[in-house]
Amino acid sequence: MEQKTRILIVEDDMIIAANISVQLSNLGYEVMGIETRGEEAILHATANCPDIILLDINLRGNVNGIEAAEQIQKFKRIPIIYLTANSDEATFAKAKATRPHAFISKPFNSLNLQRTIALVVDQIKDNDMDTLEVSDNLEVLSDRIFVRHNGKMVKLLLDEILYIEADRNYSNIVTSNGNYLVSTTLKLVQNEMKNHSFLRVHRSYMVNISKLDVVADNHLEINRKVIPLSKSFKEHLLKHLHTI
């Protein structure tokens, strides 16, 4: 039997929240709860890890929906669908920066809700297939990663990582304190760490750009290690270096 998709509703209008809850239950989803404040949403999401969060942007209280999303994503990568009656560009830009899966504008109808959630569920299933290998061996948080090493998950601070080298279907994570080989391809590692200061510079290498000692025409150096720099990645790297 297929497990139900679990959804947390964060909406401070209880009439709207209750209506959404009934609709989702009728569609076969599991409603994990209703929260009306950003603070409670953060606690609920980090403790219970729902599959999707329906999150109102304009929550009353000290923490709005965007701020709640930012805090949740420091600990859990949970797909977010924003509910909003506010369409101004500044709010949209702030919300977009949290990388939501979708927006639903208020007022919305049942069909709009149904179709949006169905599309996000399909995205989650596709991503699960693509990142299954990663999830078992690599967990990326805001300032650290956990890698499976010698049968246990080991914490590595992102600032300790110098570069990551591909080794067929494995990745060798090189730190200032040692190396960690994980059974995850470099492409999947790249997808997981794209929001951090790591860039692909060659088909076989990703580097921590804060650790670069030398940038030459066709190679880089980190801690005396010479790393090849491909032409196809060079422009992207230089753009990032100019912004830091």
UniProtKB/TrEMBL annotation:
Which BP terms does GO give this entry? phosphorelay signal transduction system
Show the InterPro entries listed in the entry: Bact_response_regulator, CheY-like_superfamily, LytTR_DNA-bd_dom, Sig_transdc_resp-reg_receiver
UniProt GO molecular function: DNA binding
Does the record bear Phosphoprotein in its keywords? yes
Q: Which Pfam families match?
A: LytTR, Response_reg
Which residues are recorded with the post-translational modification 4-aspartylphosphate?
A: D56
Where does the HTH LytTR-type domain start and stop, copy by copy? 145-212
Do you know which SMART domains this protein is assigned to?
LytTR, REC
Q: What residues does the Response regulatory domain cover?
A: 6-121
Q: Which Gene3D superfamilies match?
A: 3.40.50.2300, LytTr DNA-binding domain
Enumerate the PROSITE patterns for this protein: HTH_LYTTR, RESPONSE_REGULATORY
UniProt keyword list: Phosphoprotein
Q: Output the PANTHER family linked to this UniProt entry.
A: RESPONSE REGULATORY DOMAIN-CONTAINING PROTEIN, STRESS RESPONSE REGULATOR PROTEIN 1
Q: What is this protein called?
A: Two component transcriptional regulator, LytTR family
Natural source organism: Arenibacter troitsensis
Source species taxonomy:
Bacteria, Pseudomonadati, Bacteroidota, Flavobacteriia, Flavobacteriales
